[in-house]
Amino acid sequence: MAINRIKALKFKNLKPTEKEQLIPDGGNLYIRVRPVNQGGSISFRFFYRFEGKQKWLTLKADNLPAARAERDSYTQMLKEGIDPNLEAKLKIERAKQQQLAEQEAITKLAARVTVRDLFVRWRDTDLLKRKDVKEIIRMFEKDVLPVLGGLFVEDVRKGHITQVIDLLKQRDAVHSARNILKLMRQMFRFAVDRDIIEFDPTASLSVVRLTTAPTERDRTLSETEIRALARQMPDANFMQSTECAVWIALSTMCRIGELSKAQWCDVNFEAKTWTIPESNSKNGKAHTIYLSDFALEQFKRLATTRQTDTWIFPNRDNSSHVCDKSIGIQIRGRQTATILSGRSKDSQALVLTGGKWTSHDLRRTGATLMGDLGISPDVIEKCLNHTEENKVKRIYQRQELKAEQAEAWKKLGDRLNLLVNMDGSNVVLLHNKAG
């Protein structure tokens, strides 16, 4: 204790000289005094031996008590077989790595995005050219984002995905669950491709096991059902435009979505044609339909009550076309198993003997009738505006068969006119088996 006090007093009185001074303090601790011409600064050094080598270590302390404490810690390291010099370097490196890790964590935290943010980026990037973008937005806003929207993308797990699917299944919306799972998979793969997340949380989920296997519908309306449909339609409480849409869909074999977006400028009453532009066509190919007298009559009926100069099927305020699903929903609503309150007359008005039918079944029925009328499959495919699956045929067989298509639609229209508008008691039915 007395020695330390004496050394402490001596330390306070240390003065620089013309030469460097190295003053021992005990325990291998030395006080170094720089010469006058180097500023006369005072520092502390620790001398030790490690693995047979003599080593010096400059201490960080700026006063004698701190230097002694630092010396004692290094002495303990030596007893434990640790090289103080190496440990000092490692400590500096560990501090750097910790700083880098903290900075990386801060950067990652700032860059975290929620599922809603991801959906917006996916929508504005990958969904721009999809024709069903409005429907996808509706599905996500209704069923996905209320559950996942606030979660950070990297925190989403399989359990969150199955929660969305299970809620849909509880509503008996199994097919919607299947479609939404496939869409969520596309969105999370988009995130993986852009390094937003490392793993897709939907990757190990089976669409079939979690939802349902895809079903291929083959429902067609028989000619008996078509005649029944004509008799029952007046009791369906449809607007005239919806009734016309049913007959146009059947007689032209168009898709309901294409019909919903139709504009008056697309119909040429003199040439008896309706052109579906690329922007409305499912396969992105413009399609000209040669209207039969039966189909043309439906467009003329629509023209007598036209509400805008643009849209054939306008929405409520005439600002755009009617929703793609509107016509299908109206058809489905007239085939309910239970009578709905306030709709006792029309909720079962379109029930047919072959079972439930959809707007898309009208397209399939028209194609089937064409086949029964002897139209060649190649011409029917052209009328349906299908893309040829065979690559060689698609490249080399580019004939449009316009005259053949016009004749096919005429035959279909004549047959429908016979079934719908005339006394069919003596008509020989061609297609009378409900699909």
Instruction: Tell me the series of helices and strands, N- to C-terminal.
Output: HEEEEHHHHHHHHHHEEEHHHHHH
CATH names the topology of the largest domain as: hpI Integrase, Chain A
**CATH class membership of the largest domain:** Mainly Alpha
Estimate nothing, just give the exact number of structural domains. 3
Roughly what is the average pLDDT, rounded to an integer? 86
Low-confidence stretches: none
Q: What is the helix fraction of residues, given as a range?
A: 40-55%
At the fourth level of CATH, the homologous superfamily of the largest domain is Intergrase catalytic core
Per DSSP, the total helix count is: 17
> Which CATH-level-2 architecture of the largest domain?
Orthogonal Bundle
Q: What is the rounded Rg? A: 41 Å
Mass-distribution shape: rod-shaped
Q: Number of DSSP strands?
A: 7
Give the N-to-C terminal Cα separation.
107 Å
- Give the DSSP E fraction (strand runs of 2 or more residues): 5-15%
Secondary-structure-based class equals: alpha+beta
GO molecular function, one term: DNA binding
Organism: Methylocucumis oryzae
Keywords: DNA integration, DNA recombination, DNA-binding
InterPro entries: DNA_brk_join_enz (IPR011010), Integrase-like_cat_sf (IPR013762), Integrase_catalytic (IPR002104), Integrase_DNA-bd_sf (IPR038488), Integrase_DNA_bind_dom (IPR025166), Integrase_recombinase_N (IPR010998), Phage_int_M (IPR053876), Phage_Integrase (IPR050808)
